[in-house]
Amino acid sequence: MKSPLLHSVIGVLLVFGQISIAKAQKQPQSRPNIIVFLVDDMGWQDTSLPFWTEATALNKRYHTPNMERLAREGMKFTNAYAAPVCTPSRTSMLSGMNAAHHGITNWTSPQRNEPTDAKDDQFLPAEWNYNGLSPQPGIAHTLYATPFPELLKAAGYYTIHVGKAHWASAGTPGANPYNMGFMINISGHAAGHPQSYLGTENYGNIPGKATPQAVPDLEEYFGTETFLTEALTREALKALDEPIRNKQPFYLNMAHYAVHVPLMADKRFYQKYLDAGLDMQEAKYATMIEGMDKSLGDMMDYLKARHVDGNTIIIFMSDNGGLSLAPPRGGPAHTQNAPLKAGKGSVNEGGIREPMIVKWPGITRPSSIANQYVIIEDFFPTLLEMAGVKNYQTIQKIDGKSFVPVLKNAAYTDNQRFLFWHYPNKWIPKDGPGINYCSAIRQGDWKLIYHMRDSSMQLYNLKNDIAENEDLSKKNPEKTTQLLKQLRDQLKNWNAPMPVDKKTGKPIAITSGL
Amino acid sequence: MKSPLLHSVIGVLLVFGQISIAKAQKQPQSRPNIIVFLVDDMGWQDTSLPFWTEATALNKRYHTPNMERLAREGMKFTNAYAAPVCTPSRTSMLSGMNAAHHGITNWTSPQRNEPTDAKDDQFLPAEWNYNGLSPQPGIAHTLYATPFPELLKAAGYYTIHVGKAHWASAGTPGANPYNMGFMINISGHAAGHPQSYLGTENYGNIPGKATPQAVPDLEEYFGTETFLTEALTREALKALDEPIRNKQPFYLNMAHYAVHVPLMADKRFYQKYLDAGLDMQEAKYATMIEGMDKSLGDMMDYLKARHVDGNTIIIFMSDNGGLSLAPPRGGPAHTQNAPLKAGKGSVNEGGIREPMIVKWPGITRPSSIANQYVIIEDFFPTLLEMAGVKNYQTIQKIDGKSFVPVLKNAAYTDNQRFLFWHYPNKWIPKDGPGINYCSAIRQGDWKLIYHMRDSSMQLYNLKNDIAENEDLSKKNPEKTTQLLKQLRDQLKNWNAPMPVDKKTGKPIAITSGL
Known about the structure:
The structure is a homodimer of 514-residue chains.
Chain A: H1 4-15, H2 21-25, E1 33-39, H3 57-61, H4 65-73, E2 75-81, H5 86-95, H6 99-102, E3 123-124, E4 132-134, E5 142-144, H7 148-154, E6 158-163, E7 184-186, H8 228-245, E8 250-255, H9 270-275, H10 280-305, E9 312-318, H11 349-352, E10 353-359, E11 368-370, E12 374-375, H12 379-386, H13 404-408, E13 418-423, E14 438-443, E15 446-451, E16 457-461, H14 477-493, E17 500-501
Parallel strand pairs in A: 1-8, 1-9, 2-11, 2-12, 4-5, 6-7, 6-8
Antiparallel strand pairs in A: 2-10, 3-17, 9-10, 13-14, 14-15, 15-16
Family (chains A, B): Belongs to the sulfatase family.
Keywords (chains A, B): Calcium, Hydrolase, Metal-binding, Signal
Cofactor (chains A, B): Ca(2+)
């Protein structure tokens, strides 16, 4: 392991371009520790760290000094993507597959065999894998795959999961992080959000009032003022003691329940947001953001104090866009991720573009910015490459692409690659922008959105129009057709779930416009 | 690690007395794995393995072939003891202290600051540590101590807790096994029994119906026919894969929730006990016993299949006597541990004498029987000695005494040692035999019971009168006085909690009769 001092020196040299990246890599180094710091439902603008070309009003609203610090020490990704809702993203990360391919296209219920599709007049639900991901074959309505933590564990990594799991429904193996390759599990289970963030409410564990969302494993904080984010952070750091002492490389899946609803005030930060003029809901949301950021800072401080910061990769990510339904959010609906359109549940940028930062000591340059687009399934091959795991066997075919080349060179560009989003489900009763029954494809700066209800399409140039206001499909029929064909062929190739037309009783097909 | 074959050969040689134990010990051997298989509320006679000088009707009722198998491969203890109820026993085991010394004399509530003493006309509750054991100082109403798993972990053991913990109340650090030195925790928390044993009832995790006893961490079995005992066994074996693969010595605290109430039928075994003529409650109880025994067998099979049985110590134990309240048990009250008097909650033998078996490959002789009395706090120094941990530092002064000398020599005898039981609490509304406000002391075959309500005493000779029917205190005033003085001095020395006399407002003292 490199000393923190040596790393700082290399860092400084890198900034001034005095030595090459390749040279830095040649330093002797043990296998790196890896932390994925995954926030739930955090939007691209829910931070004081600007991810766009300019600082926005939202950047001024929020306080995330530790994200700023991490970005100063590492690489900021301005075009990082996830799926529009949580389970598809989380299972894409664990399986390395696109949601259209693994077929877990919507969030999974904590109860088995309960598809979560809202009722619809036009469509019957698609045949999706509504019980989630499974590390064992033969489980109905699941996708059988090899989760990457299993491969890291087999390679000698000490694997820890803390916080929200939500990879599968209760009653199936994937509900249990211990079955997914994790050696330690704290508070991860089948639920997608906490019943309560408050220790004074036992995080929901109140006799007779507990729901499937009551957070397990935190009894020691019951009755205390400890906000859930803080409790999970303390438990995570406690779990890290063991591998650090044994000099065993670790993988920590630090998956915060924040900032998912229910919106609750983290009292440590509440007053200042009220004083700043935010309404109560938005002030609560801001406190949840800042509490999450404090967790990041606590973790960075801990790594430094334990002298492992120089050999620990931190990847900051969110699992989908910020919630833009109002209520529960304050302000007009679908404005909460401005300049992006819409939010969670949408294939518009507000639903899928994520704040992502990677610090890989000795590899990523301090304060570097990568504009290459990447997507959540890329985490699978990337994490294994970071850990030096090669020639691994998986049940599934991996769709993700390692972004290690980007980490080594922020200017790395691949404008030929296609990214896909596929949401053949009904998330909320009333359709919103890009919400319910939509797919999308991106190549270079071009993005096409396809609406399954009426086969309508929009083509956007994201470089010039990040807000997706100007539909260029009529002006660019060739590009439109090319992207639509690519989308159609890929979905067909993956045998992607499609909603069922009530009139025909058959899954719809993407045909119109071709 | 010795090969299983080599171990078998040594075992056979030992049986025929061809080589000395000392010689067997000289074989090169890595640090042993250790499993404590702790059953909850299991009585001394709740098994087909006789622990008395004769097989009883209860021995004929129950089917525990794997306990028989373990006894054939190891050493049976006929005079093993615990405290009369669970938390005192469990915290004695973890701290190495007698209950009168650690002051956790009664079971702890899953809620903080809720003494569990029943109301009484004569006494106010004693000042006991009703929030349980704490690995951190300064927590109100707890005993601050170093738990032995912390020492095992520090020595390089991979420490796993599965099942019931119940060392402390929610809202205190001791509620969380991760704070007690365990690296893995599955289903251990602040509760003392499961809400349900049934996977079909989600072990209690039903929205709006969950109590603090809903069992955490088993989401994958929700909605299935998996009985709790079976689910915990599978999870435990899964957790063992990791240290076995890494050749790291492990400590497994396999703490079954069975056979505590609620009595529920394990359907795999139910019909045969009904057919045998048992009433429904007793038939259910018998299925819970047999399911627990199957777990033991599955574990032994697993160790063999993984080729670590030759280097794995198994210690079978229960935490207090079998429940003898009727209902919920069938039959007349306080007969369920016959020939022993009373049951759980009592300082009579039925409440404290436990089925204990130890298999230490290469050390314990097959089918050996030890009559030396031992007690639950002895586990602390014994387990550390087994693991080769020496010169360890603890916050607390250890009362327990290693029984390794007994394991090396079944004939080992110490009739001078004193054992103590102290229950200054009110467990149930109506006093029973040895139940509520009683202390006891044993030396050699002599046992004195002291009743705090009226300072009355009974003296028994357990060798001749295991049923504690004949009070010899009048016939043996000297022995009676000697034991009473010893008890009084020890309780005083330990500053043991005592009930408060409502008339004087002061804790009572043991004075009468002296």
